[in-house]
Description:
Blueprint: H1 2-9, H2 19-28, E1 30-34, E2 39-41, E3 49-55, E4 58-60, E5 71-73, E6 78-79, H3 81-86, E7 94-96, E8 100-106, H4 107-113, H5 117-124, H6 127-139, H7 165-175, E9 179-182, E10 188-191, H8 192-200, E11 221-222, H9 227-237, E12 241-246, E13 249-255, H10 256-262, H11 267-275, H12 280-299, H13 304-327, E14 335-339, H14 341-344, E15 356-360, H15 373-385, E16 400-404, H16 416-423, E17 426-430, H17 435-444, H18 448-456, E18 464-466, E19 469-471, E20 477-478, H19 483-499, H20 509-518, H21 524-544, H22 554-580
Parallel strand pairs: 11-12, 15-16
Antiparallel strand pairs: 1-8, 2-7, 3-6, 3-8, 4-5, 4-7, 9-10, 12-13, 14-15, 14-17, 18-19, 19-20
Helix pairs in contact: 1-2, 6-21, 6-22, 9-13, 11-12, 11-13, 12-13, 12-21, 13-15, 18-22, 19-20, 19-21, 19-22, 20-21, 21-22
Amino acid sequence: MEDIVRFLSSHVPWQELPPERVASVARRLQIEYFPRGARVVCAGAVPQHLFLVRSGSAEAPPGGADGSPLTRFGEGDAFDVHAAWTQSASTTDIVAREDLLVYLIPHDVLAGLAGLPAMAAFLGGTAGGRLRRALDARSEGSFADTRVGDVANAPPLTCPPDTPVRDAARQMARAHMSSILVPGTPWGIVTDRDLRTRVLAEGMDPGVPVSCVATAPMVTVPAEARVLEALAVVMEHGIHHLPVVAEGVPIGVVTVTDLLRLQSRSPLLLGRVLERTRSAEDVEGWSRQVGPALTEMARAGIAASAVGRLAALACDALIRRLADAWTQAPDVPRFAWLALGAVGRCESAWPPEGGSLILLDTPAQGASDAIPPWLASTANVMERLFPDRSNPSPRAAPALACRTLGDDPNPADLHPAVLEALLDARLVTGTLDPSDRLARLARRAGARPIAAALLARIRRPPLAWHAGCVQEPDGTQACHLEVPNRIVRPIQNLARLASLGTDAPPRQTPARLRAAAEAGHLARALADDLAAAWEWAAGWVLARGRDAHEEPTAADRALMRDCFALLREGLDAMADRIRREDSWMR
């Protein structure tokens, strides 16, 4: 009995049940053995028990009444759950792939547990619902789940616009506050740093109205926003004081210090360290701190989309820091530094993936792809820090490339890997703005032949997946499942394709899926479910870092199968749409 309880307690959904309920299940279940090749479930029969694999494996062949792919079940996996719970006919045969020991759990036991949230999701939930529930459980208790309004100093210190600067400074000193807000249309803010740099350093008369030195409009964040959103805002804008508003009225101010108290290894702290770097060696040391900080945030349950945004902001800060020496140089031609791939989508881990592209107004030293002398030192540091891990194709975009802006390229003439990189491209710094050309490229990439070619590049889910064996659609086998390549990237690629032709296509995968739903390219429920699948799988990868290829638990395998089912549905929906319409984009 104790062995059965231990086994159940290590697998979902039983591990989420109260111990006394797990013990009651252990007392009621039966144990049955099936030799290799024996039929465990017959298509058309109504099962009276839920089957839970204790040891060995079973498989359901492809096809069946529901057209399902080959499915294999290993230790801790339950099969025929829907039929056992609804008392409906099984849709396929299930056969013992090797000697099989199963626990048989009666229907009335399931009924007695159905009121518990974990069992309700297990028995009757949808794939998207189970993934969203897993995301909620992952983020519960995370520091980033704190509302900004609960962190901000309230109420804020304020003074009329005509208040002399000296009086505003005295008011700040008496209140021991480092900022003061100035009401108006729009509101403004004055910080202690403003007093140093705009008043004292410039020799300004301290009797001038405070409105003369206030920053207006001020960058704000809503009170209901979460701490992680505030982290991203202060990093993106390079500010230290962030007013918090409710119904358009400031109710407090949150500072960098307030946020750092919540998370000591925040990228905010890394940003402050970056400000003090002066050499390539300093930058390398800083870069080594970023990865562990972001991994820790992912392990704390912070959404993958939020961690990816912070990673991109950290990479942007590094690029701008490296580019600072030549950005303002008079002999540097007009340029645009574009982040590509995962960094361009703001979805990268660390080191950043996707590379960079420098677009020039005129050819560099007579060669359109040569790294010019003024960029060489930055290129050397970037390549040393972030070696190219992109597509090995010789026509794919390298880690750092330099090109002349030229005419608008025809997407049909580009290597698909280059086209995908450009569709993810995002401006980081520079004196050129290629956004119009990139938008035109995205619109032209929506042509039916190009869309079909992009769809063909998306890897389909495996036909079967079992411990030690991944059965691919082409008949080949792999020893283990690569979650980044089999779930995360296919959903990213599907989202990119589905969002082509939408107004101002976004770059992050969840936002692209929402835009595709708004445009009618995907059903809204499917788009939401795919976004949940991406968030869950990307978070799984980020939290494991270099161990992302480790064997998943039975609970993770069940959710990954949900991801595969949703990905199949999404790919089939896009293929059907492209087939049905000559001009498939709006």
